[in-house]
Amino acid sequence: MNKKALSAILFLITFVAAYLFICFGIPGMRIKLEAEHMELFIESIKHMMLFKTMISLIVASVVGAVPFLLWKKK
Asked: What confidence score (pLDDT) does residue 15 get?
C-alpha cells in the first residue's frame, strides 16, 4: 500500500473516531435530550458541528501525516 492511500485511510478513520469521541466521550459535549436513540444520535452529531469538525480535522491531519514522516526517515 502506498503512502498516499495509507495516509487517506488513516485520516478518514481518525476523523470519524475523533468526531464520535468528542460527541459521546467527553461529558461536557454530550447533549441531554429525552428522545429515541436514533434522534439522540443525529442531534449529538449536529450539535456544535463546526467546533467538533475543526478539532477532528486537526487530530486526523496529525495522524494522517504519520506515514509521510516515518517513511521519509528510511
From this structure: 96
